[in-house]
Structures are given as C-alpha cells and as structure tokens.
Amino acid sequence: MQWNDHSRLVGQHAFLGASKYHWLNYDTQRLVDAFMSCQAKEKGTRLHAFAAECINLKQKLPKSKKTLNAYVNDAIGFRMDPEQVLFYSENCFGTADAIAFNDKDNFLRIHDLKTGAVPAHIEQLFIYDALFCMEYHVKPKDILIENRIYQNDDVLIETPTADIIDPIIEKIKEFDKIIADLR
C-alpha cells in the first residue's frame, strides 16, 4: 500500500480525532463549547509565551489594570524570571509563570497568569513555594513569601507562611515515595 504523505501532522492531534472519541456523543452545543474551550487554551498558551518574551526582553506593556499588562509590568518591575521549572522529582515538578528570590531579604515572589474564566486556586502557587523550598534547600520559616494570581483584570495576593507550606512539603515527600515504590 502506498500511504498518503501526512508527515506535517506527525505528533499533532485533530480536534475530531480518534483518540478523543468522546465527541461522538456531543450535540452541536457541546461541540461548540468544547471547541471554544480548546481555542481558549491555545490562546492562553500563546499569551503565556508572549508574556514570557516581554519579561525576558524587559519590554513593558502600556500601563493598565488589564491582566496581561499588569502581570508583565509587575514581573519586570520585580525583576522576575519567567517560566521557571521547579523540580523535586520526576513525579513532582512544575513551571512557575514568574519567580524571583531575593537572597538579601529572603523573599520569595511567585506570580501566576490566568487567562481563562475558571477561578484560579492559590494552592497551585503554594505547591510552587514548596517545590522552591525543596529544590533550593530553603526552610519556609526562614523566608517571606508573596504569591500573586493575575486574572480577570484583578490581582489576588497571598502571603503564605510555614504553617501552610510545610504540610505541602511533607505531602509531596510522602506521595513521591509512594509513587516511587509503585514503579
């Protein structure tokens, strides 16, 4: 059999692909909702890449309370690094949208950009805090932490303490060991 050449599609997945067979059960509205959600995720990915490039280039955006502008400008102003992987193990790591640690003040700052409508959960940033502490051998009680979520033209600010981060560290260690033992 001489197969048609589709090499440009290798590694990609069609929206109506076989591996995502659930669409067979969709009605028109469910299809539209799912497609629009997929488009929003793709836009979010592109906005994150754009924001990271702005931060890397130290290119501020026009001053505004708009989510993207505030996120980029604050990250630049606080001298943060974008898209930083925080690693504990192959089972537990994540990428902080923007992060900075000031050795002099022992101050950890992590910002997260949310481009979707679904309300964000600050616990995600607490996990990044824990991963930072674990990877860089920092005790949460020895530092100050500020987490920010930028979403819907608003900024949620939390300042977690060791009593919040320490149990997350312990749970990561416990669950990582369980998974490692199962491998």
Question: Please, could you describe this protein's structure?
Answer:
Helix content is 41%, strand content 22%. It has 183 residues and is α+β, with helices and mostly antiparallel strands. The protein has one domain (17-183). The protein has a 5-stranded mixed sheet. The radius of gyration is 20 Å and the shape is globular. It starts with 27 loop residues before the first helix and ends with a helix. The mean pLDDT is 96.
Number of strands: 5
- Assign an overall shape: globular
Residue stretches low in confidence (pLDDT < 50, at least 5 long) are none
As laid out across the biggest beta sheet, the strand order is: 1-2-3-4-5
Secondary-structure-derived class: alpha+beta
Distance between the termini: 41 Å
> Number of helical segments?
4
Largest sheet report: 5 strands, mixed
Helical percent range? 40-55%
Please state the CA-atom Rg, rounded to the nearest Å: 20 Å
* Tally of discrete structural domains: 1
**Mean pLDDT reading:** 96
Indicate the proportion of strand residues. 15-25%
What's the SSE pattern? Answer: HHEEEHEEH
Short description:
By secondary structure, this protein is of the alpha+beta class. The protein contains four helices and five strands. The protein is globular and about 65 Å long.
Element layout with pairings:
Elements: H1 28-57, H2 67-77, E1 81-89, E2 92-102, E3 107-113, H3 123-135, E4 144-151, E5 154-158, H4 162-182
Parallel strand pairs: 3-4
Antiparallel strand pairs: 1-2, 2-3, 4-5
Helix pairs in contact: 1-2, 3-4
